[in-house]
């Protein structure tokens, strides 16, 4: 089984945009977590994390987006980064069957709209980076 990106939805409320994706992965949560919550993992498919203190309230700096705080942190499950002027990025992992997991992704931001196809391409890159899970 390879990963699949099941849905991407985009909503706008006033000046706030919200993107949601559901990404099914053949790997267990423990194998996917580093791609979402470590500097090395994020750099492999998304953007360099120049600073990442792995704890609730820890500092985070994502090179292409800016600096802020970790506003949710549950090891192997939830990483949420809230960046000054760049909004919120939330990764939420759930078990899916014996071996796999599902990533529920939320991106909330204001200002210029980000492209759903761009995020889909990033997730395709992440799936490639993770391999087949074995």
Total count of helical runs of at least 4 residues: 3
User: If you average the pLDDT, what whole number results?
Assistant: 92
| Number of strand segments | 8
Q: What is the CATH topology?
A: Alpha-D-Glucose-1,6-Bisphosphate, Chain A, domain 4
For this structure, what is the CATH class?
A: Alpha Beta
Rg over CA atoms, rounded to whole Å, is 14 Å
What's the short story on this structure?
The protein is of the alpha+beta class and 134 residues long. It has helices at residues 29-37, 39-45, 116-130; strands at 4-13, 16-25, 49-52, 59-62, 66-74, 78-83, 87-96, 100-110.
Overall description:
There is one protein chain. Helices cover 23% and strands 48% of the residues. The protein is α+β, with helices and mostly antiparallel strands and 134 residues long.
Topology:
Elements: E1 4-13, E2 16-25, H1 29-37, H2 39-45, E3 49-52, E4 59-62, E5 66-74, E6 78-83, E7 87-96, E8 100-110, H3 116-130
Antiparallel strand pairs: 1-2, 2-8, 3-4, 4-5, 5-6, 6-7, 7-8
Helix pairs in contact: 1-2
List descriptors.
single chain, 134 residues, alpha+beta, Alpha-D-Glucose-1,6-Bisphosphate, Chain A, domain 4, eight-stranded antiparallel beta sheet, 48% strand
């Amino acid at each position: 089984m390879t990963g699949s990106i099941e849905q991407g939805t985009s909503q706008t409320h006033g000046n706030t945009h919200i993107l949601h994706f559901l990404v099914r992965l053949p790997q267990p949560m423990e194998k996917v977590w580093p791609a979402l919550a470590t500097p090395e993992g994020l750099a492999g498919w998304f953007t360099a994390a120049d600073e990442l203190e792995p704890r609730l309230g820890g500092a985070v700096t994502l090179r292409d987006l800016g600096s802020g705080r970790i506003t949710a942190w549950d090891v192997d499950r939830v990483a949420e980064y809230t960046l000054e002027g760049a909004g919120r990025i939330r990764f939420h992992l759930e078990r899916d069957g014996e071996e796999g997991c599902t990533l529920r992704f939320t991106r909330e931001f204001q200002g210029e709209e980000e492209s759903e196809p761009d995020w889909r391409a990033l997730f395709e890159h992440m799936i490639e980076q993770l391999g087949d899970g074995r």
